[in-house]
Amino acid sequence: MCITINSLKEFFAAHDTAEVLGAPMGEDGLTRWEILRDQCAPPLPDTVYISDSLEAVKRLTPSATGHLVFCAGAAFDKTRLLNVWQGCVLLIRTDQQERIVRAIQEQFYVDSRKSAMSAMLLGVLTNGAGVQALVDAAYPFLKNPLVIFDSSYRIAGVTRKALQVQGSVNQKCGCIQLPAVQFLPVVGYAAGKRRVL
Questions:
Q1: What span, in angstroms and rounded, lies between the C-alpha atoms of 182 and 197?
Q2: How far is CA 92 from CA 16, 79, 117, 126, 194, in A?
Q3: Confidence band for 61, pLDDT divided at 50, 70 and 90
Q4: Using N-to-C axis directions, what is the helix angle for 5-13 and 97-126, rounded to 10°?
Q5: Strands 187-190, 193-196: parallel, antiparallel or unpaired by DSSP?
Q6: What is the pLDDT of residues 123-138, one digit of tens each?
Q7: How far is CA 110 from CA 28, 49, 94, 115, 192, in A?
Q8: Cβ distance 59 to 38 under 8 Å?
Q9: What single-letter DSSP state applies at residue 3?
Q10: Is the CB of residue 68 less than 8 Å from the CB of residue 78?
Q11: Which of 71, 96, 166, 172 has a CA 20 to 30 Å removed from the CA of 183?
């Protein structure tokens, strides 16, 4: 997933009135966010700037490549904004800029986690590892046990670390301890008949 002005619009449109204005750059990939304060440098093309102050936007050096999320009340005249910002604008009709900033920050955090996981899994694959190595590598990101079956319903990979953690938790609380890996019978259906695989 790549964060764009259009994806942010879709995200906010569920709760707020949001519209894209200005230059048609809504699909440009964004890698950073920044609250617009008293900067005078030209905006960076991969950064989304967040503001609720028209004066702060006016102080920014004009550029045709900038991306702006502008928070304004329902009575705000959007033509005032288009006269001072030449790039792409996501206008969100809200008085709660802090909520918008937190939501954008969360979107970038989730995107960075997905990118890190994709890069790590791609690295495991390019090193010629098998299914078990992929399952083991995915566990720190997914935080859930994972079992992968082949087409014959045999286990191709299982999250052994999750089962080991579960076993140690059971041992500490006095419950029945699981072995490091416990394979339970898998019930499958072949030709409409139930069978244990």
A1: 15
A2: 7, 14, 31, 43, 55
A3: low
A4: 120
A5: antiparallel
A6: 888 888 888 888 888 8
A7: 18, 18, 23, 9, 42
A8: yes
A9: B
A10: no
A11: 172
